[in-house]
Write a structure and sequence with these properties.
alpha+beta, 4 strands
């Protein structure tokens, strides 16, 4: 599959400490050429020279149906709950679980500082659309590819740490999409091309 999905080598990172407004995340996605499907990791630094992942996730919005679902929207929904942003920002209930996991689980257990805020988060992003051939980028194939890649990040994390990232309640490496693997549509077309 995508042998360039490496937990420790994302296509780019977004250091939230360098951003002022939560909506600036959208601009980071545009500036890095993300057009559709991606997987991501929400990272923090438990020590000066170490990164760890709070969670891994994925998104593959169908932009042909509704343009309001902008690329990066899933991350913005989650990050808008984290303190430290300037200006107004919309807080969707769909992203609240990320912050509540930090506030109600990780901070009380002493895993994160009580002053934890957006400046403590770095977002790692892997561009799935860039890894797919044009003929493979349809809603169905994008969903399979990003589901598989999220499972691969979770598998690599578990191999390194012996557990899932703290805020991944469900194990992406146990999904049907990950366990059955992903074969791009273009490969099937080439196999049966006469």
């Amino acid at each position: 599959m995508f042998n360039t999905i490496n937990l420790y080598n994302p296509d780019f990172i977004i250091e939230c400490a360098r951003l002022i407004y939560c909506r600036d995340i959208y601009e980071s996605f545009r500036n890095n050429g993300i057009t559709r499907s991606y997987v991501y990791g929400m990272c923090y630094k438990p020590s000066l020279l170490t990164y760890d992942f709070l969670k891994v996730g994925q998104s593959h919005p169908d932009l042909s149906i509704n343009r309001k679902h902008q690329v990066g929207e899933r991350i913005v929904r989650q990050m808008s709950w984290v303190p430290g942003w300037s200006g107004e920002h919309v807080r969707s209930s769909h992203g609240a679980d990320f912050w509540f996991g930090i506030k109600d689980l990780l901070i009380p257990k002493g895993l994160l500082s009580p002053t934890f805020n957006k400046n403590d988060i770095t977002i790692a992003v892997w561009d799935m659309s860039h890894r797919m051939l044009t003929s493979d980028i349809c809603t169905h194939d994008s969903a399979k590819a990003t589901d598989w890649a999220e499972g691969e990040l979770a598998r690599q994390y578990k191999n390194s740490f012996g557990r899932l990232p703290y805020l991944n309640i469900q194990d992406p490496s146990n999904t049907k999409s990950y366990k059955t693997g992903y074969t791009p549509k273009s490969i099937w077309n080439n196999l049966f091309d006469i």
